[in-house]
Amino acid sequence: MAKLDTLLVNGHLTSANELPLAFANRAFLLADGVFESMRFTSRKVPFLALHVQRLHAALDAHGMTVPDSLQHDALQTAIQQWQGKWGVRSDVRIRLTAFRAGEGAYAPETDEVSWVATATTMTEEGFGLPAKGLDVDIYQDLVKHLGPLSKFKNLASTVYIQAARHAAQRGWGDALILNPDQRIIESSRSNLFVVSNGVLYTPSLDDGCVGGIMRSVLIRTAMDHGVKVYEAALTPQTLLQADELFLTNAVRGIEWVSSYKTKRYFHAMAEKLADWIQESVEAEAAADTVNPA
Prior knowledge:
By secondary structure, the protein is of the alpha+beta class. It has seven helices and 14 strands.
């Protein structure tokens, strides 16, 4: 993976060496903002409308004003222009960080928004299922608290950072996160799904997990193919009784879990879902080629 040297700053193409180090901004000082992680693949960002919808909802929940440059069509155009400067053919991970402009202490001077998007090349193409599964376990030092902002990707990410560190130190592929009720709600970077007897179960947003884009896409895809999906409270016992576990996010797609403690898992359902999602992305890209906007 390699960082690309062209960025989007408030919708404008900017060289990385022209980006000011503004240590006075509220993202750096107060984590006063949100972010979106997207994948550019098959000549576009799949599910861009869902990303924009969540981004707008997150900014509104934080009391920030959505700028014209973050409206769907403006962002789509900016990304397409930006892509022409990358000079790569690989898939690309896009991270868009939006934060409250101005300085001030806790009380902000303005609710206007500034934003910057960075691009990083990826080694894999598309949303195919990885060949190797992940070993996971539960991170217990901190819990994720519930609230009106818990379903968004907020800059304040202490629980996720510490859970990811914990996993790396122990050689796990990822760490699972608990809420105050000791329910398993997600991992350090993804939503969580359990498969039992051909049925999918995933935590409710009311339990505190992020409202993931791939989570939404997968639920819709599964139901379109006749697979039942239920929101449910997940416990360690649930995981030990499951046939499959897998994780989802908009950049990595589906990652299957090979083990939790002494339990080993299959990945047949995860593979089917990954194939269905990839087929949908490719079909949409082909339709765009035939009927460009």
